[in-house]
Amino acid sequence: MREGSILINELPLTEAFIPTRLLFREGQLKEIARCLSPALRNRKISNLFLAGPTGTGKTSVAKWILDTNFQGQSAYVNCWKYQTAHDILSELLLTFQIPVLGRESTSNLATKFEKIARKRQVIVFLDEADRIRDAEVFYHLIKSGAGIVLAFTRPHSLFRLPSRLKSSLPLTEVEFPRYSSDELTAILKDRVEYSLRPGALAPNLLKIIATLACGDARVALEGYFMSKLNEDQRIIYEILRTKGKLDSGSLYRAYRREVRDPVADRAYRKYMRKMVELGLVRETGKSRWKVYELLAE
Ligand SMILES: Nc1ncnc2c1ncn2[C@@H]1O[C@H](COP(=O)(O)OP(=O)(O)OP(=O)(O)O)[C@@H](O)[C@H]1O
Ligand SMILES: [Mg+2]
Fold first, then answer.
1. Of the ligands numbered here, which is closest to the C-alpha atom of 180?
2. Beta-strand pair 246-247/291-294
């Protein structure tokens, strides 16, 4: 194991892509683990607030800790997708495998969630919490006794919360600063070495990409990936980014609608294979039922 890196090979496969290693985030990992560890003994945890600009590892780090140590007692909600108290609570219940019936009231959902949270210390990770429409969901979560982890890209959005709520929701702040360009170069190198067939890489390319990314690992990784894709693959990438998961046939049809001179089915399949090898796209299912989605998001 290289110094300063954390091996996460034993990681169970989860929905999101988790990099092989999370470099330069030992401090944050330790601090988060320290705050959450009481939950393992069913004790109350310190709620957390992960603050930092985009692409600094907030989602990856927190998800990794929850998936490796708190499976079954934690839930992840992307609040960009689920913005209201009703949607967030439904999502939480589904994660804990509690069925949600159509048109259940928000307070009904909250009561159901409270039952789960009373039995054991659960941890709720509200990612991209700047997107939450109103404070209602926080009142339900506080009342239930669940531990809360919030990730914000714009820290000032915390000030929008009502002050009565802020005083009943003490948060320990963990800061995620931008990466330096040397750190980003190391992150890129690590990812390149991990890819199955990275191909020839100009040694300076990584450094240039890292410098241009201004501390954002997502931009750096995409810069690297994009430099290895052709025009058709970039279009396919954009389609997957906007549409999410797509089966192979639908993706091909969407691509054909986008370009004037589309490649044939065979070349399309070759392009997709290459994107999977690069670690950019995840493929599930077999032959005609293959489904694609982005990994590096
Ligand atoms: N320390 C790291 N080592 C390796 N890869 C990293 C590291 N930090 C981030 N990445 C990669 O960079 C990308 C962006 O990271 P992540 O989604 O965790 O950032 P974020 O802080 O949650 O950003 P946002 O505020 O936009 O949600 C992901 O593909 C992730 O795998
Ligand atoms: Mg994030």
1. 1
2. antiparallel
Residues with CB under 6 A from ligand 1: 19, 22-25, 52, 54-60, 128, 153, 176, 187, 217-218, 221, 296
- 50 close to 151: Cβ distance less than 8 angstroms: yes
| Mean pLDDT score, 166-170 | 85
- The reply to whether 9 falls in a domain is no
Tokens of 287: 């032959």
- CB 72, CB 39: distance < 8 Å: no
Q: Which atom of ligand 1 is nearest to the CA of 52?
A: 21
CA 236/CA 2 separation, integer angstroms: 35
How far is ligand 2, taken at its centre, from the CA of residue 259, in Å? Answer: 31
Within its chain, how far is the Cα of 217 from the centroid?
A: 13
Is residue 15 scored above 80 in pLDDT?
no
Q: To which H or E segment does residue 51 belong?
A: strand 48-51
Residues in a beta bridge with 152: 51
Q: Say how many C-beta atoms besides its own lie within 10 A of residue 74's C-beta.
A: 24
Q: The whole model's pTM is what?
A: 0.76
Structurally, the chain folds into a number of domains equal to: 2
Other beta carbons less than 10 A from residue 47's beta carbon: 20
pLDDT at 210 over 90: no
The structure tokens 């919360």 sit at: 161
The answer to whether residues 169 and 31 belong to one domain is yes
Query: 135 lies in which domain range?
Result: 26-175
